[in-house]
Design brief:
The protein has 418 residues and is of the alpha+beta class. Helices cover 29% and strands 29% of the residues. The N terminus is likely disordered.
C-alpha cells in the first residue's frame, strides 16, 4: 500500500534576493497593479488565517484544559497551500476554502511575495519556509518541482526511507541546526518506512527583542492562579510604561500590546475577567475579527504590567483540527487525489500531520519556533494629563499572540508552567 507521510516540523530557511533596474512609467503602473493584486490576495489570506487561528486555538484549549500551549496555525496554512497547488477534486476545494484563496494562480501570486516580505525583516530574526523529502524511487512531477523552487523558494531532497534511522537522523540534524536547537529529535525513526513516499516540512522561526525590555531585577516569584483552587509560583516580570491597551466589554477581557524593536512584530496578551475562563474567551474570539474588533480598539495608555516568563513547548496532532475545519479529503485514502505531486501518479494521502512549537518569552524578548506564518505602527504618544495608571496583572490564565503586521503567526494559552 502506498502511504504519504505528511509531517510538520520546525526548521529555518532564509530567502535573500535583490533586483535592481531603471523603471519606466509603464513599469511603475504594472508594479502598482501587481501590488494591488497581491495586497488584495493577502488580505483574503490573512482573514482566513484569523478565522483558522481562532478555531485552532479554541480546539487546542478544548483538548487540553488548564494547560499551557503554543501553536502556529499560520505556518500550517502555508504548508497546506503547497498541497493545494497539486490537489484535485474535493481535496482542492476544501484546501482553497480554508486558505480563503480562489485559485492556484492566487497561491502562486501571494505566497512568494508574502515569504519575501516576512523573511526580509531586519530588526528581528524571522523566517518561514518549506522543505520536501521524497523517496529515492519516486521522482517529483515537473510541476511540483517548479512550484517548490519558484513559489516556496524551497529545496527538495531524496532520502532512502527504507533506512529509517538514517533518514530520521538527517532530517532531525537539519531541523536542529536551523532552529538554534530549539527543536531536536522531532522525527522518530518509527514514523518512516519503505512505504513512505513523501515528507513535507514547514518551518517558522522567530526571535525578537522588546522595544522596551523588562528590568530583570523587577522579576519576582509570585502566585499564578491556574484555577480558583490551584495556584503555582512563577517568575513574574514587571514594568510601568506606555502600551496600546484597552478593556473590551464584548469579550470581557483586558488587552495589551507590546512591540518588538522592528515595529512590524508585536506580542498581544488577552486577559479575561476573573471568573471568565480562557475557554470561554477563545470561543468569543471565534465570532469577532481579531484586527478590527481587538487590535484596532487599543489606545495608548500608561500601564503597570505584570506578566509571567513563558517557556512552552507543544506537540499538536493536526488531523482532528483540520477535519473540524472542513479539511477531510486529504486524509481519505480513496478520495485524497494528490496525484499531481509525483511524476508517476499513485494514490497518496495524508497519513499523519503533526506540529511542534516552542516559545520563550522573557525580559529581553521572545524566541519561538513552529513547524508544519497593513503595516503596524505604534499609535500616538499620550498627551499631557493622560497619565491614569492602568493595572494589567496577568496572574491567571490568558491568551496571547505574536503578530506580524496584525496577522497572527503564533497563538497560545498560558495556564502556568508545564
Amino acid at each position: 500500500m502506498s502511504v504519504n507521510i505528511f509531517k510538520v516540523f520546525v526548521i529555518v530557511y532564509v530567502v535573500i534576493g535583490s533586483c535592481a533596474y531603471c523603471s519606466t512609467s509603464s513599469d511603475r503602473k504594472s508594479d502598482e497593479s501587481d501590488n494591488e493584486e497581491y495586497q488584495s490576495l493577502r488580505e483574503g489570506f490573512d482573514q482566513g488565517n484569523d478565522d483558522f487561528t481562532a478555531n485552532f486555538l479554541s480546539d487546542v484549549i478544548d483538548e487540553n484544559p488548564n494547560t499551557s500551549a503554543i501553536t502556529s496555525p499560520f505556518s500550517v496554512l502555508f504548508l497546506l497551500s503547497q498541497l493545494a497547488l497539486h490537489a484535485k477534486g474535493e481535496s482542492y476545494k476544501q484546501l482553497a476554502n480554508l486558505l480563503n484563496l480562489r485559485s492556484r494562480y492566487d497561491i502562486r501570486v501571494m505566497v512568494p511575495r508574502y515569504l519575501d516580505d516576512i523573511n526580509s525583516q531586519r530588526s528581528v530574526n524571522f523566517s518561514l519556509a518549506e522543505r520536501v523529502y521524497c523517496s529515492m524511487d519516486y521522482p517529483f512531477s515537473n510541476a511540483f518541482k517548479r512550484d517548490t523552487r519558484n513559489t516556496y523558494h524551497a529545496q527538495a531532497e531524496n532520502l532512502d526511507f527504507s533506512e529509517p534511522e538514517e533518514a530520521a537522523r538527517m532530517i532531525n540534524a537539519w531541523i536542529a541546526s536551523k532552529t538554534n536547537n530549539l527543536i531536536t529529535d522531532l522525527v522518530p525513526s518509527s514514523s518512516l518506512n519503505e512505504d513512505t513516499r513523501l515528507v513535507l516540512t514547514n518551518a517558522i522561526y522567530f526571535k525578537g527583542d522588546w522595544r522596551m525590555p523588562f528590568n530583570r531585577r523587577m522579576t519576582k516569584k509570585s502566585d499564578f492562579h491556574v484555577t480558583r483552587k490551584h495556584k503555582v509560583s512563577v517568575r513574574m516580570m514587571n514594568q510601568i510604561g506606555h502600551f496600546n491597551y484597552s478593556y473590551l466589554k464584548n469579550i470581557k477581557a483586558k488587552v495589551i500590546q507590546l512591540f518588538y524593536k522592528d515595529g512590524n512584530f508585536s506580542f498581544v496578551l488577552v486577559l479575561p475577567n476573573k471568573g471568565h475562563s480562557v475557554r470561554s474567551l477563545s470561543e468569543d474570539l471565534q465570532y469577532i475579527d481579531l484586527q478590527n474588533d481587538v487590535i484596532n480598539q487599543l489606545e495608548p495608555a500608561r500601564v503597570n504590567l505584570t506578566m509571567p516568563v513563558i517557556d512552552t513547548e507543544t506537540t499538536t496532532d493536526l488531523a482532528d483540527i483540520l477535519k473540524k475545519n472542513g479539511v477531510t479529503a486529504i486524509f481519505d485514502y480513496d478520495n485524497s487525489d494528490l496525484s499531481g505531486i509525483l511524476k508517476h501518479p499513485e494514490p497518496l494521502y495524508v497519513s499523519s500531520a503533526m506540529q511542534k512549537a516552542k516559545i520563550i518569552v522573557n525580559e529581553s524578548g521572545s524566541e519561538a519556533a513552529a513547524g508544519n506564518a497593513a503595516v503596524l505602527t505604534t499609535k500616538a504618544a499620550l498627551a499631557p494629563g493622560e497619565q491614569t495608571l492602568e493595572i494589567f496583572d496577568a496572574n491567571r490564565p490568558f491568551l496571547y499572540y505574536v503578530l506580524f503586521k496584525n496577522a497572527p503567526i503564533f497563538a497560545g494559552v498560558y495556564a502556568g508552567p508545564l
